[in-house]
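I would love for you to help me understand the pair of lines that follows before we discuss the fold together.
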Amino acid sequence: MSLKVLVTGGAGFIGSHLVEELIRQQYDVSVVDNLSSGSRSLLPKVCHFYRLDVRSSRLKTLLRKIKPDYVCHLAAQISAPQSMADAYADADINIMGSLNLLEALRGLSLQKFLFVSTAGVYGQARVIPTDEQAALLPPTPYALAKLTVENYLRYYEATQGIKTVVLRLSNVYGPRQGIKGEGGVVAIFARRLLKGETLIIDGQGEQTRDLIFVSDVVGGVVAALRHGRGLYNLSTQMEISVRQLVRQLGEVSGLVPQVSYGPARLGDIEKSCLANARAREDLSWQPAVPLSEGLRRTLLWLKQKDK
């Protein structure tokens, strides 16, 4: 009998890629998603889909029906700027939704609970690349909510015996990404470049990011589901500035980007790059897709999507 995996937020950008890979590896996959940002069309027909918000009182009944062996919790409000505009709504979805899910799992024989967190919890780190032991300085309600759920997971592991693993992701990009997410700079720039529109850089463009392709993240999630325990960064451990990213997009696309500069974004992190040694060692995982190849695949998907 196939092991059962529940993926919350499975109809979204990262979630839909994860669902595809889990099904390819013969897991029995159920998806809970309210479709506020995801799309049912991204999901394979063989998965079990339930349109439901993770804050719903009906979640407990559903989980007793599914009886998952594993849970991958990706459902979230994913926009850092939106979290600053409405911190209450962000906390309601990202904290209370997570607690509702954890409470709904009480009494079930769960093998592991995997939570997708963010590099944002480190804020403006003092050491680059930043490892899992670094100080935590979340600059936005979004990052603060993610960190809060991480802390709740320690409580549930200690009191309920739920085995947990937390993955702090650097900036994820790739096909299916929307423009509102935390790491959406590639999606925004690629769309505007293909339309011949101006790319607007916040500030001077010297802020750096650690860009990881979505398939590498999915590989890390599956490895952590099988072998992980505790906390891991998933990243390339390579910095690239926003200005360098624009140049690479131009080189890969064969187009000449038109660029303008705007004011720096409130709460923006100047430098972000995560160390990934622990994931490499414990999970036998490593990122495999170079940035140029990831950008090529992303641009190709956008071209096909817009035909």
